[in-house]
Amino acid sequence: MAIKWRMERSKPFWHWVVFAREGGQEMVFDSKKALQSNVRRDFGRIKPKWYIEVFN
Question: Residue 6: which residues within 8 A CB-CB, separation 6 or more?
Answer without folding.
Answer: 12, 13
